[in-house]
Specification:
There is one protein chain. Helix 4 (95-108) runs antiparallel to helix 5 (111-122). Strand 2 (147-151) and strand 3 form a beta hairpin. The strands form 2 sheets. A 4-stranded mixed beta sheet has the order 1-4-5-8. Strands 2-3-7-6 form a 4-stranded antiparallel beta sheet, with no helix packed on it. By secondary structure, the chain is of the alpha+beta class. The chain is globular and about 70 Å long. It has 3 domains: 13-126, Acyl-CoA dehydrogenase/oxidase, N-terminal domain (Butyryl-Coa Dehydrogenase, subunit A, domain 1, Orthogonal Bundle); 130-236, Beta Barrel (Butyryl-CoA Dehydrogenase, subunit A, domain 2); 252-379, Butyryl-CoA Dehydrogenase, subunit A, domain 3 (Up-down Bundle), CATH 1.20.140. It is 44% helix and 14% strand.
Length: 383
């Protein structure tokens, strides 16, 4: 039986110095009233903040200098991510491009695609969405039905994607599309494409969540033409491509820090002299977060070494999002407060209400628990 690779990361002195530098940057931003800390930091869309963060050197950190990146380590990017999330900074505009789309295009995109988008990603001015999920397929990426047919100089796409975060705001999608026969295991005949959302043949329709927020969208492709320079990787190799990309998506601190601001508020509300029940419950949450930080940092180290830790990333995502769903339940039990979005005199109650409404999606986005546990079992040789 195989085992997990979770070596406890050791942060060099320069990495911890960077942490203090990022905190100072965020303190200056707050002092200038440039952002208000938000509970869901990595989905808060603020292009101006993304541009300023890029100017400070905190976007495109691991990408090559020739494309405008900083060529810094994955661990350095990891601590920047931690600090941004802990501060509630509005990172949603650049988040997906910086986290996964940029590295994916760098590894597998054409030179034309790299030159077109990576410098703009590093500048904090180019934003991406994820074109994986489709109607009636859940987390089963092998069920992709959006189809691309060969045409002169490129491909013609028809089909639909769903749950596409910020598709109404971003510039591009990385989309998984069927280009050939699926084969016995259904993983064949898939290809990734770089999709320009400003091009003809694309319609974006909003999906409002239970809290009334517009983050999700449906994206429809009708005779949409994609030039050959926007093929990412080899035609037909999309399954391997998308599983590599998901290692970036599933393993970061955003998979267990979505409601960090509520956790911090809970600890403050319980106070420095908690009762036995409060001490046990909050202590358990803080201990779980510390373990998740170590696991996520370990995966960041593996990614920085050029490895593709799909199984470890899936475990971080599974355990991390379960932890995220636990926080509002504990917060509700420990503090007798009315959770309401209409609360004006109690930010804790408003924060709790918002997280309760968002929490059902935590264990769905990025892969359901059932899919993740199946991947983990296969990766460990258990099935």
């Amino acid at each position: 039986m195989k085992s997990f690779r979770f070596d406890i990361p050791r942060f060099p002195e320069e990495v911890e110095e960077l942490r203090l530098e990022v905190r100072a940057f965020l303190a200056r931003e707050r002092a200038a009233d440039r952002f208000i800390p938000h509970r869901s930091s990595w989905s808060s869309f603020d292009p101006d903040f993304s541009r300023r963060a890029a100017e400070a050197g905190y976007v495109g950190m691991t990408l090559p200098k020739v494309y405008g990146g900083r060529e810094r380590s994955s661990l350095e990017r990891f601590v920047v991510t931690e600090e941004m999330l802990a501060a509630g900074a509005p990172c949603g505009a650049h988040w997906i491009a910086d986290r996964q789309s940029g590295p994916q295009i760098l590894r597998h995109g054409t030179e034309e695609a790299k030159a077109l988008v990576i410098p703009r990603i590093c500048a904090g001015t180019c934003y991406f969405g994820i074109g994986m999920s489709e109607p009636d397929s859940g987390s089963d990426l092998a069920a992709v039905r959006t189809k691309a047919v060969r045409a002169e100089g490129g491909w013609v796409l028809n089909g639909q994607k769903i749950w596409t975060t910020n598709a109404h705001r971003v510039h591009y999608l990385l989309a998984l599309v069927r280009t050939g026969d699926r084969g016995v295991d259904r993983h064949g005949g898939l290809t990734q494409f770089l999709i320009d959302l400003a091009a003809p043949g694309i319609e974006v329709r909003p999906i409002l969540d239970i809290a009334g927020h517009h983050e999700f969208n449906e994206v429809f492709f009708t005779e949409h033409f994609v030039p050959d320079r926007f093929v990412v990787g080899e035609v037909g190799n999309g399954w391997d491509m998308v599983t590599q990309e998901l290692a970036f998506e599933r393993s970061g601190p955003d998979r267990f820090m979505s409601d960090y601001r509520l956790l911090a508020a809970l600890v403050d509300r319980v106070g420095i002299d908690p009762g036995p029940r409060e001490a046990v419950e909050t202590g358990r949450l803080v201990a779980h977060m510390a373990a998740l930080m170590a696991m996520s940092g370990s995966v960041a180290g593996l990614l920085g070494a050029g490895e593709i830790p799909n199984v470890e990333a899936a475990l971080v995502k599974d355990v991390g999002t379960a932890f995220e769903r636990d926080i509002p339940e504990v917060a509700r039990r420990l503090v007798p407060v009315e959770a309401s979005l209409d609360t004006t005199d109690d930010p804790y109650g408003e924060s709790l209400a918002d997280v309760i409404l968002r929490a059902p999606s935590f264990t769905l986005r990025g892969g359901t628990r059932e899919i993740l546990r199946s991947m983990i079992a296969r990766g460990l040789g258990l099935r």
